[in-house]
Specification:
heterotrimer; A alpha/beta; B mainly beta; C mainly beta; A: alpha/beta; Elongation Factor Tu (Ef-tu), domain 3; Rossmann fold; 5-stranded parallel sheet; disordered N terminus; C: mainly beta; Sulfite Oxidase, Chain A, domain 2; 6-stranded mixed sheet; 5-stranded mixed sheet
Chain lengths: ~260, ~90, ~200
């Protein structure tokens, strides 16, 4: 059951528990990505960008722990969403995307992360750059931005292999057309639908400059995805004039090929 | 410093935060660490981390020196912070 | 690890232990080859690579890559056991026996510190490196050893937990006083015998 967590000015915790989450529903986002909707009684709240560690235990005691970003904004309370991309040879992700069903229970540790987080009060303008499942914590930020009615200018540059692999496509398109909505730009790196006029290559310095321009005062950038993409984009953003402290990164490791 | 071969195993301080949460009451990813090797200061979350080495190793993004090492096993934790000259945390 | 509610239908990547008798206590069989590294993969140019035996020896030894590859080598088929609990059976390597490298090295030292590109070290008794127990391996599964697995050459000491089989090895320092290496100084067992489950200090 949920353990109370004491907090002080410095966020001191009295315990670091494993929360028990019940899977409420699963929802495929793309052929490889699935969202798990979880109910976590007692969840202490979180900030957009934070993640949880999920722990699985086999009946012989073998355990595996993996980190997943929270896709849900803090405004969703005890109803958490995780979006998991299946890595072909992964030990945990195929279980979460293909096997888990409503009624199952998972153990989570978190929320984790005080660095790769954004709250509306932090301002902007906001540049979000994501590759593949790196869009998940960025989506939590955009959902939080929408929920608070923030008018901080925001732009998402999202690299995916193909149109079918854009996670949250419908919701992103809807957010983009709303008043004060974010600007959403896709680049499709492996295949593009007929008539595609958008970018069709890996994110590079030229694309970043076209999409985001030079950083305005107060600009914040969040970059998340495969390690290589994150390191290249972060380096390009520094060349564009972003201050190092204003570029936050989260490396996810490699993606499946 | 890092090569593309490392993409398979190189994460960053964000991934290290979970295991460190087991022993630290304070959230470390927002901390700024000063490297005892080269003296540069950076947010913990931005430094490369090797998660399963068979322990956790956080390295300085500038010079590659080991900042922090953590082993967890046999009912104990072992932590080496000698690579961190100074750790700065803001009040929440 | 402690506790944990059982995750319905979760098995991980493991296979049923048909070869259970070949697994040391607490190990699981794996078919893949996990990459565990404490730092970035080094890429020493082979024309500047060398392997050195130094320390408390009558005369230090040094081999360039060409000289090293000209030494007699052998094929080794062995099981390997990682302290993180995975074991891999019947792995095939090619390497130069430590007996060959240590032949004629005059020493009274009892201990060895293996040192590597990237700064990793591990320590072992000299007696664990001789009598056909250890190699410097340059090929795995019929191909040159890949960088992420320790290439161009790594130590191979399969009777101990695999953190002792130091990747990117560049030499051995022979010492009279045992000197704990990178992991041995932070909780991992000084000797590391998987059959006695010597994982951590005090085991």
């Amino acid at each position: 059951m949920a353990q109370p967590i004491g907090t002080s000015r410095l966020g001191r915790r009295t315990a670091s528990p494993w929360w028990v989450a019940e899977v409420v529903a699963t929802h495929p986002e793309t052929p490889r990505a699935t969202t798990l909707l979880l109910a976590v009684p007692g969840w202490p709240g979180h900030r957009a960008g934070q993640h949880v560690d999920v722990r699985l235990t086999a009946d012989d005691g073998y355990q595996a722990v993996r980190s997943y970003s929270l896709a849900s904004p803090p405004e969703d309370g005890e109803r958490l969403a995780l979006t998991v991309e299946r890595l072909g040879d992964g030990e945990v992700s195929p279980y979460l995307t293909d096997e888990v069903r409503a009624g199952d229970r998972l153990e989570l540790r978190g929320p984790i992360g005080g660095y790769f987080t954004w709250t509306a009060a932090a301002g902007g303008p906001l540049l979000l750059v994501g590759g593949g499942s790196g869009v998940v914590p960025l989506m939590a930020m955009l959902r939080h931005r929408a929920a608070t009615g923030s008018d901080v200018p925001a732009c998402l540059l999202y690299s995916a292999r193909s149109d079918a692999e854009i996670i949250y496509r419908a919701e992103l398109d809807r957010l983009a057309t709303a008043a004060n909505g974010p600007r959403v730009v896709y680049t499709l790196t492996r295949s593009q639908p007929t008539g595609w006029t958008g970018y069709r290559r890996r994110i590079d310095a030229a694309m970043l400059e076209e999409v985001s321009g030079l950083p305005a005062p107060g600009a914040l950038a969040y970059v998340c995805g495969p390690t290589r993409l994150v390191e290249n984009v972060a380096s390009d953003l520094l060349s564009l004039g972003y201050a190092p402290a204003r570029v936050k990164t989260e490396r996810f490791g490699p993606t499946g090929s | 410093m890092d090569t593309s071969d490392d993409a398979a195993v190189r994460l960053d301080g964000n991934a290290a935060a979970g295991p460190l949460q087991e022993i630290f009451a304070l959230e470390l990813t927002a901390a700024r660490l000063t490297c005892a090797g080269c003296g540069t200061t950076r947010a913990f979350g931005a430094d490369p981390a090797y998660m399963d080495a068979p322990g956790l190793v956080l390295r300085c993004a500038a010079c590659g020196a080991v900042l922090l090492r953590l082993v967890h096993g046999g009912g104990r934790y072992w932590l080496d912070l000698t690579g961190v000259r100074c750790l700065e945390l803001a009040e929440a | 690890m402690a506790g944990g509610i059982i995750s319905r239908g979760f098995h991980g990547r493991r296979r049923p232990p048909a070869e259970a008798s070949r697994l040391p206590p607490g190990q699981y069989l794996t078919r893949d080859f996990p990459v565990l590294s404490a730092g970035p993969t080094p890429h020493p140019p082979l024309d500047r690579w060398d392997f050195v035996i130094k320390g408390e020896v009558a005369a230090p030894r040094r081999w360039t890559w060409q000289e090293f590859r000209a030494l007699p080598s052998e094929r080794i088929t062995t099981d390997i056991h990682c302290v993180t609990r995975w074991s891999k059976l019947d792995t095939v390597w090619e390497g130069v026996a430590l007996d060959t490298l240590l032949a004629g090295v005059g020493t009274a030292a009892d201990y060895v510190v293996a040192f590597c590109d990237g700064g990793y070290t591990t320590n072992l008794p000299l007696a664990d490196l001789t009598a056909g127990q250890a190699w410097v391996a340059f090929a795995y599964d019929g191909a040159p050893l890949a960088p992420e697995h320790g290439g161009p050459a790594r130590l191979l000491v399969p009777h101990l937990y695999f953190w002792k089989s130091a990747k990117w090895v560049r030499g051995l320092e022979l010492v009279s006083d045992d000197r704990p290496g990178f992991w041995e100084s932070l909780g991992y067992h000084n000797h590391g015998d998987p059959w006695h489950e010597q994982r951590y200090w005090g085991d």
